[in-house]
Amino acid sequence: MKRFIPVYFFISLFAFQTNAQSLLALSTGISADLNNERPFYSIPVSLRWEPFKHSAFFIEATQGIGFDRFANSVAYTTSAQLPEHVSLTKAINVNTFSIGTGGAIVLYTNKKNNRFTLNLSIGICSDTFRVIYKNYDKVNYEVLNPDVGENLSGLYFSGAGVYNFHRRRQDMFVMLRIQSPSSAIHPDHYTLSYNKTAALQLTFGYKLFYNKK
Questions:
Q1: Exposure string over 131-168, b if 16+ CB within 10 A, otherwise e
Q2: Which of 1.10.1740, 2.60.40, 2.40.160, 3.30.450 is the CATH number of 2-67+95-131+155-210?
Q3: Where exactly are the structural domains of the chain?
Q4: For 49, 54, 58, 178, which has the most beta carbons within 10 A of its beta carbon?
Q5: What is the pTM of this model?
Q6: Which residues, at least 6 apart from 207, have a Cβ–Cβ distance to it below 8 Å?
Q7: 44 has which bridge partners?
Q8: What pLDDT does residue 97 have?
Q9: What is the mean pLDDT of residues 190-209?
């Protein structure tokens, strides 16, 4: 936790250096995991709230809806009446959720008031893994060292480049966001075939303003 304090202080310092309106921003797109050799893919749905009219402080929440990742597995039996082993299909799915606070730093603004910002945030995230072995005869066969589902929760840090297209009533934006793996520690058991996720998200969204100037 102590190692995140300087980062949080840095975010807070710059959060009040821009002149943004109060707004809600909703976006979605595609996310690829960078922390596994075989990446997990998901659809991220993000909501960002900037509550103060004259600051760039924000609160953000992101829900990742994961796609199944498939792999082959083998189950064995000691019964002489059955084949010694059978092939199975293993499906691993991960749903992610994060919520945190941060600040935005304006890096570029053009004549049309289009703006490129760097968003930095810190918060709490969770990875919820679910593992299913399809057509698994658990009575007669056994998978050795099977993958099991688990929930891993901890701290995260993220950075995002956001390009905002200015409109009269609302702004559209494109965001490329990367989130660190959580600080959670795996339970003490045999090695699983998956690890905590680190999301690289490309999303498109809209800003809805209130408290107009």
A1: bebeebeeeebeeeebbeebebeebbbbebebebeeee
A2: 2.40.160
A3: 2-67+95-131+155-210
A4: 58
A5: 0.84
A6: 23, 24, 25, 164, 170, 171, 172, 173
A7: 64
A8: 98
A9: 92
What is the per-residue DSSP string for 2-23?
Answer: GGGHHHHHHHHHHTTSS-PPEE
For the beta carbon of residue 74, count every other beta carbon within 10 angstroms. Answer: 13
Question: How do residues 20-29 score in pLDDT, each as one tens digit?
Answer: 578 899 999 9
What is the 3 state secondary structure string of 100-165?
A: EEEEEEEEEECCCCCEEEEEEEEEEEEEEEEEEEECCCCCCCEECCCCCCCEEEEEEEEEEEEEEE
Mean per-residue pLDDT for 113-130? 95
CA angle 204, 202, 208 (to 5 degrees): 25
Q: How far apart are the first and last CA of the chain?
A: 39
Q: Residue 125: which of 162, 154, 88, 145 has the closest Cα?
A: 154
Lowest mean pLDDT among 41-45, 173-177, 183-187: 183-187
At 204, phi and psi to the nearest 5?
Answer: -130, 140
Lookup: tokens for 201: 């998200």
Arithmetic mean of pLDDT, 6-26:
59
Residue bearing tokens 């992610």: 96
Report the half-sphere exposure of 154 (CA within 13 A, side-chain side).
16
